[in-house]
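Comment thread on ticket #2218

A.B. wrote:
> Attaching the input chain for the structure job we discussed in standup.
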Amino acid sequence: MKRTFFRKNIAVFAVCFALLLCGTLFSGCTSEIGISLNKDGTIDVRFEGASGVAFATLIRSAAGVEEGDVVFDTREIIAELSKNSFSEVRAISKKGTDLIITMKDKQQTTPLFTSGVLKVKGGKLSATLSADRLLNFYKSSDEEIVSFLDMLLAPVFNDEVLSVVEYLDTIASFYGADAAKEIEESQFKITLKDADGTSRVFTIPMTTLLTLNEVIEM
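C.D. wrote:
> Ran it. Output below, let me know if you need it in another format.
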């Protein structure tokens, strides 16, 4: 029961929010998301990441599962995302701690758009990351998503301001130095592709995202 509930939470979190911001649970590496606008107005999304050792251990502990068990249940992820306005969802996890997801947003009605993070205008795809938009997403999210965002102890979700050093100290005190190091070393790569094929690539440190106190336009 606990395991199923936890995996369903991961499914919702891992893409409804995490697809654009999810590198938060895929710490210790560079997580990537590619978002492409098609000429018919549909959106293709591809996410790829792998959880760091410390966060994989944390997730297993919270879920009550044994070492070696998979962190991401791809069947649950596909089922949950299909319920949340995504279509043609495919999910692959070869090692249990890595995750590749591809899917479509056919009507621009997924949380990526309703949160105000993504926008389409004149055949151009843009993204805006700001503290107020992320906080608004947090406040409007359901209990499952909030439970995961709370695990990150991120000031951006608590309407407070912390420096990167202060935030990493907080993570270290709760989860240990290894978890703090994974977040500190993590990067999030975002590729936006317009309907005409023009692509733009942005790389953001995970600590910048979780302590965001500026507006990032992409």
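A.B. wrote:
> Thanks. Noting for the ticket: Residues 153 and 170 are 8 Å apart (CA to CA).
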